[in-house]
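User: Reviewer 2 asked us to show a designed sequence for the structure in our supplementary figure. I'm pasting the structure tokens here. Could you produce the per-position amino acids so we can include them in the response letter?
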């Protein structure tokens, strides 16, 4: 550790130094022109005394500015969380019928995994998906073994939210690279864990046997539903805008096809009065709030399923707008508050023990009841460079543990042992993944390096995150689900068709790998993406470049006297023309 105290105040922005190359200490500060050029391994070590002075030693004026900044920060953070709440509710309204119908019924492990991914992407909440799965097991609609594979898929699907949030940094290439890496480290951990544990579970029933051995044979008493404090703060306003009817999704999934969304429409409130008491039991995808006894703004008496889904779509756009505005506000304000602060001090303050970071991630997620909210809130901090990727990783793992608390609470509401077994399988799936991919440094670097490579891909082409989301969370699950469905039809024709499709997909994948590694496919792909990004940047900068060229030409004309010569030539031409006219007359 460096024991020499760095003169923090002298470096905290009082001077006009804007580059680490101009400082005697060589340290980088927020706001420097070369801030993004410093690699994590180049960041020096600070003392805790420096951290304390940078944090607590301020003038009264500075404390006043900090207080105002924190208040504005809380304002943006509240509406950022509200945006996430509206995003989840809107997604449930839009995709609730589809998610409910695909969650019910028996299927094979691969199909169950894909169903878990798609349902979570549609509902934008792994907590909701796992709660529904636990309810399905408690109702006897699906077996525990199938539910375990669905929960694995839910773990993957939940990471799409913070990946979407990372796209809020599209305007800054440096921040986008860091934010996208910070978001996809969650994806990489989940994908790698499923890659190992799904075959293991299919072959040995490891999670099923472990959780079954931990529980008694007899049922236990029902518990109460627990609501986190953050949920209590954000939900009242969110429920006044839109509130998804989760009971409808559960009832459709449990019914095994006997009930559809159309059975809940049209919405019919007694006497045409829109309130919880008059509309209870007669609403569809959008519900009224039991606590306030009021119906949300997007609730409509007499609405059809299409009307509710349109309302959900409008609210989804509103949620994305709120998220983008608040994300820009949060990042801008944090950058202003950290302006001039040494990265050595920030790194020292945030560089906590990885296992302690897991505990913090777990605690935060239990409070907010959503791993998506935890990781989505931390992703902008990674983009700014406040939190390093190595610190984001254990926080993400802790969030994965914390989100299992919701499933445990849902199991306590049921009196079935199988429901609790499913919830515990979710917990031990995440614990098993952590034991594989974190304690050993070599294994820990695998998801970190993969996330960094994905982050660097955004440098080549900023449209890469959109393609990544569409392929990994929609196209791939749908293809694999379709292939699995061919073998579930009890028909020789579909089985043969499925076999040919599997062979075709395997051949296409093999050719792609051959092209990628042996035919310079990687270089060609990177060149193509770089060319697209270059054209896009050239098109964006063209108006500014044209103005610059015009200004330079004007300056050259004035400097060389070309403008005077042109004026003289114009006067001579005009005189000659007048002379010719007079001669003709």
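Assistant: Here is a per-position design you can include in the supplement:
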């Amino acid at each position: 550790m460096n024991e020499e105290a760095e003169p923090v105040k002298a470096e905290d922005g009082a001077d006009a130094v804007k580059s680490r190359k101009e400082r005697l200490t060589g340290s980088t500060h927020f706001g420097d022109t070369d801030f993004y050029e410093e690699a994590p391994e180049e960041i020096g070590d600070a003392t805790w005394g420096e951290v304390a002075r940078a944090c607590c030693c301020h003038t009264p004026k500075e404390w006043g500015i900090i207080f105002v900044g924190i208040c504005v920060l809380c304002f943006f953070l509240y509406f950022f969380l509200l945006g996430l709440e509206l995003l989840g509710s809107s997604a449930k309204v839009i995709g609730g019928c589809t998610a409910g119908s695909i969650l019910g019924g028996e299927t094979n492990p691969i199909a169950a995994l894909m169903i878990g991914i798609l349902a979570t992407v549609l509902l934008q909440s792994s907590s909701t998906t796992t709660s529904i799965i636990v309810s399905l097991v408690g109702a006897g609609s699906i077996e525990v073994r199938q539910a375990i594979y669905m929960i694995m898929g839910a773990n993957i699907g939940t990471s799409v939210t913070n990946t979407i949030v990372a796209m809020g940094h599209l305007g800054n290439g440096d921040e986008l690279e860091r934010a996208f890496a910070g978001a996809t480290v969650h994806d990489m951990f989940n994908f790698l864990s499923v890659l190992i544990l799904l075959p293991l579970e299919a072959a040995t029933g490891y999670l099923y046997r472990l959780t079954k051995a931990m529980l008694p044979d007899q049922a236990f008493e029902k518990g109460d539903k627990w609501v986190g404090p953050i949920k209590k703060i954000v939900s009242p306003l969110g429920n006044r805008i839109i509130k998804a009817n989760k009971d409808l999704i559960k009832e459709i999934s449990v019914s095994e096809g006997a009930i559809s969304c159309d059975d809940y429409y049209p919405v019919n409130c007694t006497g045409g009065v829109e309130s919880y008491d008059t509309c209870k039991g007669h609403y569809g995808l959008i519900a009224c709030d039991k606590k306030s006894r009021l119906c949300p703004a997007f609730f409509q008496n007499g609405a059809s399923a299409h009307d509710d889904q349109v309302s959900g779509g409008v609210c989804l756009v509103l949620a994305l707008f709120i998220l983008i505005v608040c994300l820009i506000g949060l990042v801008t304000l944090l950058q202003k508050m950290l302006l001039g602060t040494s990265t050595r001090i920030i790194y020292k303050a945030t560089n906590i023990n990885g296992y302690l970071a897991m505990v913090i991630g777990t605690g935060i997620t239990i409070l907010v009841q959503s791993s998506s909210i935890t990781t989505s809130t931390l992703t902008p901090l990674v983009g700014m460079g406040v939190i390093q990727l190595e610190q984001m990783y254990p926080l993400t793992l802790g969030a994965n543990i914390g989100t299992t608390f919701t499933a445990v609470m849902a199991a306590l509401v049921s009196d079935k042992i199988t429901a609790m077994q499913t919830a515990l399988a979710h917990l031990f799936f995440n614990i098993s993944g952590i034991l594989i991919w974190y304690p050993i440094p070599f294994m820990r670097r695998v998801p970190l390096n993969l996330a960094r490579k994905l982050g660097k891909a955004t440098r080549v082409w900023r449209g890469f995150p959109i393609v990544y989301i569409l392929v990994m969370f929609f196209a791939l699950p749908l293809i694999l689900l379709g292939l699995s469905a061919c073998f579930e039809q009890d028909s020789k024709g579909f089985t043969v068709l499925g076999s040919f499709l599997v062979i075709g997909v395997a051949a296409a994948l093999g050719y792609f790998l051959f092209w990628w590694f042996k035919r310079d496919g990687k270089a060609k792909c990177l060149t193509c993406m770089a060319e697209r990004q270059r054209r896009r940047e050239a098109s964006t900068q063209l108006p500014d470049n044209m103005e610059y060229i015009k200004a330079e030409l004007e300056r050259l004309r004035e400097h060389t006297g070309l403008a005077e010569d042109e004026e003289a030539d114009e006067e001579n031409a005009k005189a000659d023309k007048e002379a010719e006219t007079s001669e003709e007359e």
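For the response letter, you might also mention the following. The chain has 24 helices and no strands. Residues 1-15 have pLDDT under 50 and may be disordered.
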